[in-house]
Amino acid sequence: MARLVDALLIESTGEVVRRSRTPERDLRLTTRMGCHDVSELVQRLTRMASASVARVQKAAKSVLVEQRLDGEPLPARLPAMRDALIDGEVGVDGLLAVAGPLEAMGDRVAVEDLLAADAVLAAEARGVGPDGAPPACADLLRIQALAWSAVLDQDGAEPREERALRLRGVRLGRVTDGVVPISGALLPEVAAQFQRICTAVDSPRTQPGVRFHPDDPNTDPFLPDRRTTAQQHHDALATALTVAASSELLPTIGGAAPTLLISVREEDLVDDTGWAHVDGTDEPVSPAAARHAGCAGVIQRVVLDDRGRILKIGTEQRVFNKHQRRAIGLRDGNCIIPGCGVPAAWCEVHHVTDHANGGPTHTDNGVLLCWSHHRFIDDGIWKIRMNHGVPEVQAAKWYDNTMRWRPVTTSPTRLLDTIRRRT
């Protein structure tokens, strides 16, 4: 029934389009109905949103039956898909899935080849295709239509690639409410790589995972992630940028790796008051952001007097060297927060006792945390301490109301040892 309703809506919209194409404005259906264009008229008639009406108009374009000057009908651009639509075998999603790739080929493909692809795809939608498969859903029809497009349009990829290269871009807006809006368009392969990074960082169940052992054996050891998908993607991007900047593979700036510069008054950092300032933006950030950057990266202390004169320049200190990081990664395996599971290669090393408070740069004082948990560890939801060189976590009360300090079992070797001790 839904597909038949789609067919009625598409056919009706096509008829509105056809009756509104006359050169004489006063004779157009849209003008006689007091509307500016087809979209406005269909919106008023159906009470649909403009985006939904645009989809229906696009679908109607591919199956619209035009008329010749003598009044005789012309065949639709995709006649087989039109018949499948009228019969209720395909809806607006399926029609658009086929029409998009086929019509993108334009005049570069012979009409006979286009009609052949149309016939096969309509048969697949009905479930009577050459392979005898059941009726194809919209996503499968799109995949098959893209395959037909790649076979028929050997030269189509190049102009599409040129157009995509022109459209690509990322734009950073002005700071609003403490965040910077981002917009733009990614090339498909770049978007796919970013999606893979998001999957690797934000899908703890695909990793061995961090095990936390409350007293209740029925408790799921994997904690729910309360971040939204957009927040997860933001944190994955932040992780990727941090890893890339510290990889020593990027071009240098002034002879050094791309380095984020943050300045903060010492008393503000100690008292957790005031603001820190990031080089490259006029928007101030919290002292917590400064502590996070200092804990994860390179620290170089620059002392200025009240007038701004440089009094003292310290030497750069990388918080943990590569040998210490390997050892901590072997011990912790991944982010030690229960249920996170971000692998060691994507994690930052956190000073359990803050470096500014005299915490040593030693493996007994360093633990692996992902970017998100490291950035917000000072919120106090999760607490970390070291017990003779072994990290222990006190979980949030909503998860473990006993509030006990518990060692986290992360690496496969330590997990196996724990199981052996218990058995």
From TrEMBL:
It comes from the Bacteria. InterPro entries: DUF222 (IPR003870), HNH_nuc (IPR003615). It holds the Pfam family DUF222. Signal peptide: none annotated. Coiled coil: none annotated. Residues 323-375 form the HNH nuclease domain. This is DUF222 domain-containing protein.
